[in-house]
Protein backbone atom coordinates (compact mmCIF):
# COMPACT_ATOMS: atom_id res chain seq x y z
CA UNK A 1 0.00 0.00 0.00
CA UNK A 2 1.35 3.41 -0.91
CA UNK A 3 1.35 5.77 2.04
CA UNK A 4 -0.86 8.86 1.73
CA UNK A 5 0.13 12.36 2.75
CA UNK A 6 -2.15 15.36 3.03
CA UNK A 7 -0.26 18.44 1.88
CA UNK A 8 -1.94 21.68 2.95
CA UNK A 9 -1.07 24.57 0.61
CA UNK A 10 -0.40 24.81 -3.12
CA UNK A 11 2.55 27.23 -2.83
CA UNK A 12 6.22 26.55 -3.46
CA UNK A 13 6.65 24.55 -0.26
CA UNK A 14 3.50 22.46 -0.74
CA UNK A 15 4.17 21.52 -4.36
CA UNK A 16 7.86 20.83 -3.60
CA UNK A 17 6.88 18.56 -0.72
CA UNK A 18 4.30 16.78 -2.91
CA UNK A 19 6.91 16.12 -5.59
CA UNK A 20 9.46 14.99 -2.99
CA UNK A 21 6.96 12.62 -1.36
CA UNK A 22 5.80 11.22 -4.66
CA UNK A 23 9.40 10.52 -5.64
CA UNK A 24 9.72 8.67 -2.33
CA UNK A 25 6.81 6.40 -3.33
CA UNK A 26 4.04 8.17 -1.41
CA UNK A 27 0.66 9.39 -2.68
CA UNK A 28 0.28 13.09 -1.85
CA UNK A 29 -3.09 14.84 -1.86
CA UNK A 30 -2.93 18.65 -1.90
CA UNK A 31 -5.64 20.87 -0.43
CA UNK A 32 -5.63 24.58 -1.19
CA UNK A 33 -7.81 27.22 0.45
CA UNK A 34 -8.04 29.39 -2.69
CA UNK A 35 -10.64 28.47 -5.33
CA UNK A 36 -7.99 28.23 -8.05
CA UNK A 37 -4.25 28.24 -8.60
CA UNK A 38 -2.70 31.70 -8.30
CA UNK A 39 -0.30 32.98 -10.95
CA UNK A 40 2.02 35.99 -11.33
CA UNK A 41 3.45 37.32 -8.11
CA UNK A 42 6.38 39.46 -7.20
CA UNK A 43 10.10 39.37 -8.00
CA UNK A 44 12.00 36.60 -6.23
CA UNK A 45 15.75 35.98 -6.30
CA UNK A 46 16.49 32.27 -6.45
CA UNK A 47 19.81 31.36 -4.86
CA UNK A 48 22.12 28.42 -5.71
CA UNK A 49 20.61 26.22 -2.97
CA UNK A 50 17.16 26.80 -4.49
CA UNK A 51 18.43 26.00 -7.98
CA UNK A 52 20.00 22.83 -6.62
CA UNK A 53 16.69 21.88 -4.98
CA UNK A 54 14.87 22.63 -8.25
CA UNK A 55 17.28 20.25 -10.00
CA UNK A 56 16.80 17.62 -7.25
CA UNK A 57 13.02 17.87 -7.68
CA UNK A 58 13.37 17.55 -11.45
CA UNK A 59 11.76 20.91 -12.25
CA UNK A 60 14.82 22.89 -13.35
CA UNK A 61 14.02 22.46 -17.04
CA UNK A 62 10.58 24.01 -16.55
CA UNK A 63 11.80 27.02 -14.62
CA UNK A 64 11.67 30.26 -16.55
CA UNK A 65 14.17 32.85 -15.32
CA UNK A 66 14.28 36.54 -16.16
CA UNK A 67 17.71 37.94 -15.33
CA UNK A 68 18.14 41.31 -17.04
CA UNK A 69 21.48 41.90 -18.73
CA UNK A 70 24.72 40.06 -18.17
CA UNK A 71 26.71 39.96 -14.95
CA UNK A 72 28.57 43.21 -14.51
CA UNK A 73 26.35 45.32 -16.74
CA UNK A 74 25.18 48.44 -14.88
CA UNK A 75 21.44 48.06 -14.74
CA UNK A 76 20.85 48.82 -11.08
CA UNK A 77 20.61 52.39 -9.89
CA UNK A 78 20.31 54.08 -6.54
CA UNK A 79 18.81 57.52 -6.13
CA UNK A 80 20.20 59.71 -3.36
CA UNK A 81 18.49 62.40 -1.29
CA UNK A 82 19.35 65.02 -3.90
CA UNK A 83 17.70 62.95 -6.61
CA UNK A 84 21.02 61.95 -8.19
CA UNK A 85 21.04 58.60 -9.94
CA UNK A 86 24.13 56.41 -9.48
CA UNK A 87 25.07 52.87 -10.57
CA UNK A 88 24.36 50.58 -7.65
CA UNK A 89 24.61 47.02 -6.47
CA UNK A 90 21.25 45.40 -7.10
CA UNK A 91 19.59 42.47 -5.39
CA UNK A 92 20.86 40.15 -8.11
CA UNK A 93 24.47 41.24 -7.57
CA UNK A 94 24.65 39.26 -4.33
CA UNK A 95 27.16 36.38 -4.05
CA UNK A 96 25.93 33.19 -5.66
CA UNK A 97 24.51 34.92 -8.73
CA UNK A 98 20.81 34.50 -7.90
CA UNK A 99 18.33 33.91 -10.69
CA UNK A 100 15.55 36.48 -11.15
CA UNK A 101 12.10 34.93 -11.28
CA UNK A 102 8.54 35.76 -10.35
CA UNK A 103 7.12 33.67 -7.55
CA UNK A 104 4.63 32.45 -10.14
CA UNK A 105 7.47 31.16 -12.36
CA UNK A 106 8.57 28.74 -9.64
CA UNK A 107 4.99 27.74 -8.91
CA UNK A 108 4.31 27.20 -12.64
CA UNK A 109 7.36 24.92 -12.94
CA UNK A 110 6.27 22.93 -9.89
CA UNK A 111 2.68 22.75 -11.18
CA UNK A 112 3.88 21.20 -14.45
CA UNK A 113 5.63 18.51 -12.44
CA UNK A 114 2.75 17.53 -10.17
CA UNK A 115 0.58 16.21 -12.97
CA UNK A 116 -1.39 13.28 -11.58
CA UNK A 117 -1.33 14.57 -8.01
CA UNK A 118 -4.84 15.12 -6.65
CA UNK A 119 -5.44 18.81 -5.86
CA UNK A 120 -8.61 19.93 -4.06
CA UNK A 121 -9.26 23.66 -4.25
CA UNK A 122 -11.34 25.69 -1.78
CA UNK A 123 -10.50 23.10 0.85
CA UNK A 124 -8.93 23.56 4.30
CA UNK A 125 -8.29 21.47 7.39
CA UNK A 126 -10.46 22.24 10.40
CA UNK A 127 -9.34 19.57 12.87
CA UNK A 128 -6.29 17.34 12.93
CA UNK A 129 -6.36 14.35 15.30
CA UNK A 130 -3.43 12.01 15.80
CA UNK A 131 -4.03 8.29 16.13
CA UNK A 132 -1.35 5.69 16.80
CA UNK A 133 -1.03 4.57 13.19
CA UNK A 134 -2.63 7.41 11.25
CA UNK A 135 -3.76 11.00 11.41
CA UNK A 136 -7.39 11.95 10.95
CA UNK A 137 -8.24 15.28 9.37
CA UNK A 138 -11.57 17.07 9.26
CA UNK A 139 -11.60 18.90 5.95
CA UNK A 140 -13.92 21.69 4.92
CA UNK A 141 -14.95 22.47 1.37
CA UNK A 142 -17.63 25.14 0.79
CA UNK A 143 -20.49 23.97 3.04
CA UNK A 144 -19.28 20.40 3.40
CA UNK A 145 -17.12 18.88 6.11
CA UNK A 146 -15.70 15.36 5.87
CA UNK A 147 -13.12 13.22 7.67
CA UNK A 148 -10.25 11.43 6.02
CA UNK A 149 -7.19 9.58 7.32
CA UNK A 150 -3.61 9.97 6.16
CA UNK A 151 -0.19 8.65 7.15
CA UNK A 152 1.23 12.17 7.31
CA UNK A 153 0.01 15.78 7.26
CA UNK A 154 2.34 18.38 5.75
CA UNK A 155 1.55 21.97 6.72
CA UNK A 156 2.77 24.10 3.81
CA UNK A 157 0.16 26.81 4.26
CA UNK A 158 2.35 29.86 4.68
CA UNK A 159 3.29 32.29 7.42
CA UNK A 160 -0.15 32.25 9.07
CA UNK A 161 -0.43 28.47 8.80
CA UNK A 162 -3.66 26.84 9.96
CA UNK A 163 -1.93 23.49 10.43
CA UNK A 164 0.57 25.16 12.77
CA UNK A 165 -2.21 26.89 14.69
CA UNK A 166 -4.29 23.70 15.01
CA UNK A 167 -1.43 21.40 16.00
CA UNK A 168 1.35 23.57 17.50
CA UNK A 169 -0.56 26.48 19.06
CA UNK A 170 -1.63 30.07 18.36
CA UNK A 171 0.21 32.36 15.93
CA UNK A 172 1.47 34.61 18.73
CA UNK A 173 3.61 31.74 20.03
CA UNK A 174 5.51 31.42 16.77
CA UNK A 175 5.34 34.70 14.84
CA UNK A 176 7.90 37.33 15.76
CA UNK A 177 6.98 40.85 14.69
CA UNK A 178 9.55 42.90 12.78
CA UNK A 179 7.77 46.27 13.02
CA UNK A 180 7.78 46.63 9.27
CA UNK A 181 5.33 46.56 6.36
CA UNK A 182 5.61 45.62 2.71
CA UNK A 183 3.62 46.31 -0.40
CA UNK A 184 4.59 44.41 -3.56
CA UNK A 185 2.98 44.72 -6.98
CA UNK A 186 3.66 44.80 -10.69
CA UNK A 187 4.30 48.13 -12.42
CA UNK A 188 2.27 48.73 -15.56
CA UNK A 189 5.34 50.32 -17.07
CA UNK A 190 8.87 51.19 -16.04
CA UNK A 191 9.65 54.52 -14.38
CA UNK A 192 10.14 57.11 -17.18
CA UNK A 193 13.77 57.67 -18.28
CA UNK A 194 14.83 54.20 -17.07
CA UNK A 195 15.28 51.09 -19.24
CA UNK A 196 12.61 48.41 -18.73
CA UNK A 197 15.15 45.99 -17.29
CA UNK A 198 16.67 48.55 -14.88
CA UNK A 199 16.43 48.11 -11.13
CA UNK A 200 16.08 51.16 -8.92
CA UNK A 201 16.77 51.47 -5.21
CA UNK A 202 15.78 54.31 -2.93
CA UNK A 203 16.70 53.17 0.58
CA UNK A 204 16.08 55.92 3.12
CA UNK A 205 15.79 55.81 6.88
CA UNK A 206 12.70 53.75 7.77
CA UNK A 207 11.26 53.67 4.24
CA UNK A 208 12.43 52.32 0.93
CA UNK A 209 11.26 51.89 -2.65
CA UNK A 210 12.69 49.12 -4.81
CA UNK A 211 11.95 48.53 -8.47
CA UNK A 212 13.08 45.16 -9.82
CA UNK A 213 13.73 45.14 -13.56
CA UNK A 214 13.20 41.86 -15.41
CA UNK A 215 14.26 40.63 -18.84
CA UNK A 216 10.89 39.93 -20.41
CA UNK A 217 8.29 41.23 -18.03
CA UNK A 218 7.18 44.54 -16.56
CA UNK A 219 9.19 45.45 -13.45
CA UNK A 220 7.77 44.70 -10.01
CA UNK A 221 7.88 47.22 -7.17
CA UNK A 222 8.36 46.85 -3.45
CA UNK A 223 7.51 49.52 -0.93
CA UNK A 224 8.69 48.78 2.57
CA UNK A 225 8.68 50.84 5.74
CA UNK A 226 9.25 50.50 9.45
CA UNK A 227 6.50 51.21 11.96
CA UNK A 228 5.78 50.32 15.57
CA UNK A 229 2.01 50.28 15.10
CA UNK A 230 1.31 47.30 12.89
CA UNK A 231 -2.42 47.05 13.62
CA UNK A 232 -3.00 50.65 12.58
CA UNK A 233 -1.46 49.97 9.14
CA UNK A 234 -4.35 47.71 8.20
CA UNK A 235 -7.02 50.36 8.78
CA UNK A 236 -8.28 52.70 6.05
CA UNK A 237 -7.19 52.94 2.43
CA UNK A 238 -3.85 51.28 1.71
CA UNK A 239 -3.02 53.68 -1.10
CA UNK A 240 -3.65 56.69 1.11
CA UNK A 241 -1.62 55.17 3.91
CA UNK A 242 1.32 54.50 1.60
CA UNK A 243 1.07 58.00 0.15
CA UNK A 244 1.22 59.38 3.69
CA UNK A 245 4.15 57.16 4.69
CA UNK A 246 6.15 58.10 1.59
CA UNK A 247 5.16 61.76 1.56
CA UNK A 248 8.16 64.05 1.60
CA UNK A 249 10.13 61.68 -0.65
CA UNK A 250 9.51 63.96 -3.56
CA UNK A 251 11.17 61.90 -6.26
CA UNK A 252 9.84 60.98 -9.72
CA UNK A 253 10.52 57.30 -9.02
CA UNK A 254 8.45 57.35 -5.81
CA UNK A 255 5.68 59.30 -7.53
CA UNK A 256 5.56 56.84 -10.45
CA UNK A 257 5.49 53.82 -8.12
CA UNK A 258 2.72 55.26 -5.95
CA UNK A 259 0.67 56.26 -9.00
CA UNK A 260 1.14 52.75 -10.43
CA UNK A 261 -0.13 51.21 -7.20
CA UNK A 262 -3.47 52.92 -7.71
CA UNK A 263 -3.80 51.29 -11.14
CA UNK A 264 -2.37 47.88 -10.22
CA UNK A 265 -4.96 45.07 -10.55
CA UNK A 266 -3.67 43.52 -7.33
CA UNK A 267 -0.98 43.95 -4.74
CA UNK A 268 0.36 42.27 -1.64
CA UNK A 269 0.21 44.39 1.51
CA UNK A 270 1.31 42.76 4.75
CA UNK A 271 3.28 43.03 7.94
CA UNK A 272 6.71 41.41 8.19
CA UNK A 273 7.31 38.52 10.60
CA UNK A 274 9.61 35.64 11.14
CA UNK A 275 8.35 32.23 12.26
CA UNK A 276 10.45 30.68 15.02
CA UNK A 277 9.74 27.12 16.15
CA UNK A 278 11.80 24.84 18.37
CA UNK A 279 10.67 21.85 16.27
CA UNK A 280 8.90 21.54 12.92
CA UNK A 281 7.16 18.21 13.49
CA UNK A 282 5.20 16.30 16.06
CA UNK A 283 3.96 12.76 15.53
CA UNK A 284 2.57 12.56 12.01
CA UNK A 285 2.40 16.30 11.33
CA UNK A 286 5.27 18.26 9.82
CA UNK A 287 5.65 21.86 8.65
CA UNK A 288 7.61 23.12 5.66
CA UNK A 289 8.32 26.53 4.09
CA UNK A 290 6.95 29.77 5.56
CA UNK A 291 4.65 27.76 7.86
CA UNK A 292 7.72 26.35 9.61
CA UNK A 293 10.42 28.99 9.40
CA UNK A 294 9.26 32.04 7.40
CA UNK A 295 12.51 34.00 7.16
CA UNK A 296 10.66 36.91 5.52
CA UNK A 297 11.38 38.80 2.33
CA UNK A 298 14.46 40.62 3.67
CA UNK A 299 16.36 37.31 3.83
CA UNK A 300 15.66 36.71 0.14
CA UNK A 301 15.73 32.99 0.95
CA UNK A 302 12.06 32.08 1.42
CA UNK A 303 11.45 30.54 -2.00
CA UNK A 304 14.88 28.94 -2.02
CA UNK A 305 14.28 27.36 1.39
CA UNK A 306 10.75 26.26 0.48
CA UNK A 307 12.08 24.35 -2.52
CA UNK A 308 14.87 22.95 -0.43
CA UNK A 309 12.48 22.02 2.39
CA UNK A 310 10.18 20.05 0.10
CA UNK A 311 13.11 18.25 -1.50
CA UNK A 312 14.63 17.50 1.93
CA UNK A 313 11.37 16.09 3.28
CA UNK A 314 11.03 13.76 0.28
CA UNK A 315 14.67 12.65 0.56
CA UNK A 316 14.33 11.96 4.31
CA UNK A 317 11.18 9.89 3.83
CA UNK A 318 12.84 7.94 1.00
CA UNK A 319 15.84 7.27 3.22
CA UNK A 320 13.69 5.98 6.11
CA UNK A 321 10.79 4.25 4.33
CA UNK A 322 9.59 2.34 7.41
CA UNK A 323 10.35 4.82 10.15
CA UNK A 324 8.50 8.13 9.91
CA UNK A 325 9.93 9.45 13.19
CA UNK A 326 13.47 8.85 11.95
CA UNK A 327 12.60 10.50 8.62
CA UNK A 328 11.23 13.63 10.31
CA UNK A 329 14.28 13.77 12.59
CA UNK A 330 16.59 13.53 9.58
CA UNK A 331 14.59 16.26 7.76
CA UNK A 332 14.92 18.60 10.71
CA UNK A 333 18.56 17.82 11.53
CA UNK A 334 19.66 18.24 7.93
CA UNK A 335 17.85 21.51 7.30
CA UNK A 336 17.96 23.34 10.63
CA UNK A 337 21.52 24.81 10.34
CA UNK A 338 20.74 26.34 6.93
CA UNK A 339 17.48 27.84 8.18
CA UNK A 340 18.98 29.22 11.40
CA UNK A 341 21.83 30.85 9.51
CA UNK A 342 19.50 32.66 7.14
CA UNK A 343 16.98 33.61 9.81
CA UNK A 344 19.82 35.33 11.67
CA UNK A 345 21.29 37.13 8.67
CA UNK A 346 17.86 38.51 7.73
CA UNK A 347 18.22 41.23 10.40
CA UNK A 348 21.31 42.63 8.70
CA UNK A 349 19.72 42.29 5.30
CA UNK A 350 16.74 44.29 6.57
CA UNK A 351 19.16 47.19 7.13
CA UNK A 352 20.20 46.90 3.49
CA UNK A 353 16.57 46.87 2.36
CA UNK A 354 15.28 49.60 4.65
CA UNK A 355 17.76 51.27 7.04
CA UNK A 356 16.55 51.81 10.60
CA UNK A 357 17.93 55.40 10.91
CA UNK A 358 19.80 58.18 9.08
CA UNK A 359 23.04 56.74 10.46
CA UNK A 360 22.21 53.27 9.18
CA UNK A 361 21.29 54.82 5.83
CA UNK A 362 24.71 56.52 5.59
CA UNK A 363 26.50 53.34 6.66
CA UNK A 364 24.54 51.33 4.12
CA UNK A 365 25.59 53.72 1.41
CA UNK A 366 29.29 53.40 2.35
CA UNK A 367 29.09 49.59 2.55
CA UNK A 368 27.31 49.27 -0.79
CA UNK A 369 29.88 51.57 -2.43
CA UNK A 370 32.70 49.47 -1.00
CA UNK A 371 31.07 46.20 -2.03
CA UNK A 372 30.53 47.57 -5.51
CA UNK A 373 34.21 48.46 -5.89
CA UNK A 374 35.32 45.04 -4.59
CA UNK A 375 32.91 43.31 -6.91
CA UNK A 376 34.10 45.39 -9.85
CA UNK A 377 37.67 44.33 -9.16
CA UNK A 378 36.69 40.68 -8.75
CA UNK A 379 34.78 40.67 -12.02
CA UNK A 380 37.74 42.22 -13.77
CA UNK A 381 40.11 39.49 -12.62
CA UNK A 382 37.88 36.46 -12.34
CA UNK A 383 36.66 34.19 -15.07
CA UNK A 384 33.85 31.64 -14.75
CA UNK A 385 30.75 31.56 -12.56
CA UNK A 386 29.58 29.72 -9.48
CA UNK A 387 29.39 25.93 -9.62
CA UNK A 388 25.63 25.53 -9.42
CA UNK A 389 23.36 23.73 -11.81
CA UNK A 390 22.44 25.82 -14.80
CA UNK A 391 18.75 26.26 -15.49
CA UNK A 392 18.20 25.20 -19.04
CA UNK A 393 14.93 27.13 -19.24
CA UNK A 394 16.64 30.48 -18.79
CA UNK A 395 15.31 33.64 -20.36
CA UNK A 396 13.05 32.21 -22.96
C1 LIG B 1 7.52 40.82 -1.47
C2 LIG B 1 8.22 39.53 -1.25
C3 LIG B 1 9.46 39.30 -1.83
C4 LIG B 1 10.11 38.09 -1.65
N1 LIG B 1 11.33 37.90 -2.22
C5 LIG B 1 11.93 36.72 -2.10
C6 LIG B 1 13.20 36.49 -2.72
O1 LIG B 1 13.78 37.37 -3.35
N2 LIG B 1 13.76 35.25 -2.60
C7 LIG B 1 13.14 34.25 -1.92
O2 LIG B 1 13.68 33.13 -1.87
N3 LIG B 1 11.96 34.43 -1.30
C8 LIG B 1 11.35 35.64 -1.36
N4 LIG B 1 10.16 35.85 -0.74
C9 LIG B 1 9.59 34.79 0.09
C10 LIG B 1 8.90 33.69 -0.69
O3 LIG B 1 8.02 34.22 -1.65
C11 LIG B 1 8.13 32.83 0.31
O4 LIG B 1 8.98 32.46 1.36
C12 LIG B 1 7.62 31.57 -0.35
O5 LIG B 1 6.84 31.86 -1.48
C13 LIG B 1 6.80 30.79 0.67
O6 LIG B 1 6.20 29.71 0.09
P1 LIG B 1 5.23 28.79 0.92
O7 LIG B 1 4.74 27.76 -0.04
O8 LIG B 1 5.88 28.33 2.17
O9 LIG B 1 4.02 29.72 1.42
P2 LIG B 1 2.94 30.56 0.60
O10 LIG B 1 3.50 31.12 -0.66
O11 LIG B 1 2.34 31.49 1.57
O12 LIG B 1 1.86 29.46 0.17
C14 LIG B 1 0.94 28.94 1.09
C15 LIG B 1 -0.26 28.36 0.33
O13 LIG B 1 -1.13 27.77 1.29
C16 LIG B 1 -2.45 28.21 1.06
N5 LIG B 1 -3.17 28.18 2.33
C17 LIG B 1 -3.06 29.05 3.36
N6 LIG B 1 -3.86 28.67 4.35
C18 LIG B 1 -4.48 27.53 3.96
C19 LIG B 1 -5.42 26.66 4.56
N7 LIG B 1 -5.90 26.90 5.77
N8 LIG B 1 -5.85 25.59 3.85
C20 LIG B 1 -5.38 25.34 2.61
N9 LIG B 1 -4.48 26.13 1.98
C21 LIG B 1 -4.03 27.21 2.66
C22 LIG B 1 -2.31 29.61 0.48
O14 LIG B 1 -3.45 30.00 -0.24
C23 LIG B 1 -1.08 29.42 -0.41
O15 LIG B 1 -1.43 28.92 -1.67
C24 LIG B 1 9.51 37.07 -0.87
C25 LIG B 1 8.26 37.29 -0.27
C26 LIG B 1 7.62 38.51 -0.46
C27 LIG B 1 6.29 38.71 0.20
Structure description:
With 396 residues, the chain is an alpha/beta fold. Helices cover 35% and strands 25% of the residues. It has helices spanning 12-23, 48-56, 103-113, 162-168, 230-233, 238-245, 252-263, 290-293, 302-319, 324-353, 358-381; strands at 4-8, 27-31, 43-46, 76-79, 85-87, 99-102, 118-120, 123-130, 135-141, 144-150, 152-155, 175-186, 199-204, 207-212, 220-226, 268-275, 281-282, 285-287. Strand 8 and strand 9 form a beta hairpin. It is globular. The chain starts with a strand and ends in a 15-residue tail after the last helix. Mean pLDDT is 93; it is low at 387-396. Flavin-adenine dinucleotide (FAD) is lined by residues 8-14, 31-34, 42, 44-45, 103, 124, 156-158, 162, 182, 184, 222, 268, 289-291, 297, 300-304, 306.
Keywords:
Polyamine Oxidase, Chain A, domain 2; 11 helices; 7-stranded mixed sheet; binds flavin-adenine dinucleotide; 396 residues; globular; alpha/beta
How much is the average pLDDT? Answer: 93
Low-confidence stretches: 387-396
Total tally of structural domains: 2
Number of strands: 18
Count of helical stretches: 11
Percent of residues in beta strands: 15-25%
Q: Give the overall form.
A: globular
SSE order, one letter for each helix or strand: EHEEHEEEHEEEEEHEEEEHHHEEEHHHH
Q: CATH fold name of the largest domain, please?
A: FAD/NAD(P)-binding domain
Using the CA coordinates, give the radius of gyration. Answer: 21 Å
The CATH superfamily of the largest domain is known as: FAD/NAD(P)-binding domain
The assigned CATH architecture of the largest domain is 3-Layer(bba) Sandwich
What structural category do the secondary elements indicate?
A: alpha/beta
Helix content: 25-40%
The order of strands across the largest sheet is 5-4-13-14-15-12-16
Most strands sheet: 7 strands, mixed
Distinct small molecules: flavin-adenine dinucleotide
The N- and C-terminal alpha carbons lie at a distance of 42 Å
CATH domain class of the largest domain: Alpha Beta
